[in-house]
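Protein Entry — a single chain follows
Fields — amino acid sequence, structure tokens
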Amino acid sequence: MRALIAAGIGLAAAFALVLTMTAVGAPPGETSPKPLHTTVPAHP
């Protein structure tokens, strides 16, 4: 029974965190128009 209560408290805390982040909104700024390169270009 204690495990169920602990899971409920954890779920409520996670839900509260999501609601808080939603209420705060995204940080101001713009994304870069340039694509992000994650691989090293091959040299001939």
Observations:
- The chain has one helix and no strands.
- The mean pLDDT is 85.
